[in-house]
Amino acid sequence: MATNYDQVSVGTTATTIISSNTNAKTRKIENIGSNTVYVGGDTSITTSNSFPIEPGETLDISDFTGVVYGIVAASTEDVSYIEEDFQ
């Protein structure tokens, strides 16, 4: 099993947080910033049509191997992610 992890700065346009990985088993995204980060599965995400992750919260994702995008209302916010896959 392989583990991938990194930190990403999310901006006011759809930003790739985790790339597509057909072998992904589990993914976690933690908002390490001070404002809400919104996430979704395509580039049409906005702050009103995507899933919010509040500061300090973690989102667990399973059964989704596509790209995870993020967006913020203003400026930038940092998130950390970890992904485990079947390889």
Strand count: 8
CATH third-tier fold name? Jelly Rolls
User: What is the CA-atom radius of gyration, in angstroms?
Assistant: 12 Å
Order of helices and strands: EEEEEEEE
Return residue spans where pLDDT drops below 50 for at least 5 consecutive residues.
none
What does the secondary structure layout of this molecule look like, with pairings?
Blueprint: E1 2-10, E2 15-18, E3 24-31, E4 37-40, E5 51-53, E6 58-62, E7 68-71, E8 77-85
Antiparallel strand pairs: 1-8, 2-7, 3-6, 3-8, 4-5, 4-7
Explain how this protein is built.
This protein is an all-beta fold. The protein has a single domain, classed as Jelly Rolls, CATH 2.60.120. 0% of the residues lie in helices and 53% in strands. It contains no helices and eight strands. The protein has strands at residues 2-10, 15-18, 24-31, 37-40, 51-53, 58-62, 68-71, 77-85. It has a four-stranded antiparallel β-sheet with strand order 1-8-3-6, with no helix packed on it. Strands 2-7-4-5 form a four-stranded antiparallel β-sheet, with no helix packed on it. It is globular and about 35 Å long. The mean pLDDT is 96.
Features:
87 residues, mainly beta, Jelly Rolls, four-stranded antiparallel β-sheet, 53% strand
